[in-house]
Each structure stands twice: as structure tokens, then as C-alpha cells.
């Protein structure tokens, strides 16, 4: 898990291009925006499959957390602290920070709703709160945040089982897990539901919360101790 300070610094640096070039999000969305793709069954199928995967991983982690707490021992090689970290990553990332705070109060209109792409609302940069949206707004992406939490969970579980997997299998599974938020971001960009910055900062904010939780719950007392 990366150092939280490095992730926070990365998030600050990642915002600079959007400050220097305020219309960067519009330029990127213009490359992806295609109304025909917005109603594509394949696109929606990918979206719901990834969303359901996040729900399955969260439910599994919650059950394993409860079992580890009740039995007071590791379950599937993972102690209660690890499963609790995964559950809290979902709860504090996609749940609290993204859906409860940012999406409800940042007020950023989605790409498909701004005037540049045929809508009636005004575009606003990611670093500036707006009043163009009242609920379920664009900044940041809840689905990308959820996919990032899922990727983190799967990578943590892979770490538990690395001695049982071949190096090739470990690499392949790690790449597939890491690709989840990228595929989700591409789907949200291509359908006009989110800007590039919405997806990028959904990943970074979720990773930052997970790294803070990892430092608090795991790093102070490594697994197996």
C-alpha cells in the first residue's frame, strides 16, 4: 500500500493540469463523447457487471470480517483487521466521501448535461464547487471509486495468497484487479456520465483513504504478528 503522503501529493499534482488548462476535461470528453455508445447494451452490461462485482466483494469482506471477529482468528488467511480495512475502504470512500459528501454538495454537472455537449447546464472545473447539480452530481465518480476499492481489496487478498500462486498467475490477477477502475473510468467517460477529472480523483481519493486505513490498522501491527 502506498504512503498516504505520497498519494496526497500526487492528488495535488494531478489537479494542476486542470487548473492550468480549465477546459482540459471538455477536450477529453469531446474525444469520448458519442451518443450512440450511451445507449449501448454492451456498455451498460460492462457497467452493471463491474458494479455487481464491487457489491459481491464488499459483502464477502463483511461476512469474513464478522467471522474473524467471532472466531477470533484469521479467516482465509486474513485477520479481522484486513477484512475490516476492506469494509471501511468501501464505507468511507464510495460511501461517505464520494456519495454522501462530494456528489451531493460539489454541484458539478455531468458532461452529457453541459451546454458544450447539447445540455442546458454550465460547465464547471473540478477544483471549484458549483450550483449546476443538486444531487448525484459528477464530481467524483462513485462507480470508479467503488471499482478502486474493489481493486484494492483484490490486491490485498492476492497478497495473502502469493505463496500459493505461481508468479505468472499472481501477475495476471494483479493486472486484472488494477484494470478494474481503469475500465470503469473508460466506460463512464465514453458514455458522457463523467469527466476525466471525476474518474481520476475518484481513484486517488479512494486510494488515499485506503492507505490511511492500512497505516492505522495493518502497518502498525503487520499481518501474522
TrEMBL record:
UniProt cross-references to Pfam families, sorted A to Z: PAP2 (PF01569)
Transmembrane stretches, start-end: 51-70, 82-102, 144-161, 168-187, 199-218
Chain ranges of the Phosphatidic acid phosphatase type 2/haloperoxidase domain: 87-217
InterPro entries per record: PAP2/HPO, PAP2/HPO_sf
SUPFAM superfamilies the UniProt entry points to: Acid phosphatase/Vanadium-dependent haloperoxidase (SSF48317)
Species in which this protein is naturally found: Paragemmobacter straminiformis
Keyword line: Membrane, Transmembrane, Transmembrane helix
Name the record gives this protein: Phosphatase PAP2 family protein
